[in-house]
Amino acid sequence: MTRISIDLGRRLGTVDRRIFGQFIEHIGRCIYGGVYDEGSPLADARGFRRDVLDAARPLRIPILRWPGGNFVSGYHWLDGVGPRDRRPRRSELAWYAEESNRFGTAEF
Fold this sequence. Notes:
The protein is low in regular secondary structure. The chain has 1 helix and 4 strands, in the order E-H-E-E-E. A hairpin with a 4-residue loop joins strand 3 and strand 4. The chain is elongated, with a radius of gyration of 19 Å.
């Protein structure tokens, strides 16, 4: 049988709190209908859901990474800049959906 012992009196170093960051990705309602929803009465002038941001604030997330998860493999940063109505719509390869790029590089 394998055993692991932890010596609570021995400190090897400090873990940087940034290692506990978070990411947001385009799956389900994480972005559209989640942190970003232009049509929501709960959104600010830029389309960000204030209720979602207010709920996340107490978590004190040290780093927020976007794009994250599988979405990043097919994302090109230029698709998410410029006027939203002129951004290209793309087939999103990770989740087999159409990506409008309404939340993109410029919004993050």
